[in-house]
Amino acid sequence: MTMIFQLRDTLRIVREFVVPTYRPERHYMRGPGPACAQRNHGSSVQA
Fold this sequence. Notes:
It is a single chain. By secondary structure, the protein is mostly helical. It is about 50% helix and about 0% strand. The protein is built from 2 helices and no strands. It is elongated. The chain starts with a helix and ends in an 8-residue tail after the last helix.
C-alpha cells in the first residue's frame, strides 16, 4: 500500500507541475474589505 500512496503523490506533484491549478481570478482583490469599512466608519470619502 505504501508504494501506491507514493506513486499517487508523485503523480499529483507531476500533474501540478504540468497543469497548475492556480487560478489568479480567485486571488485578486475586488475592492476594500470589511476591515477597511470598519476603520473608515463615520468619516467622509475624500476624492
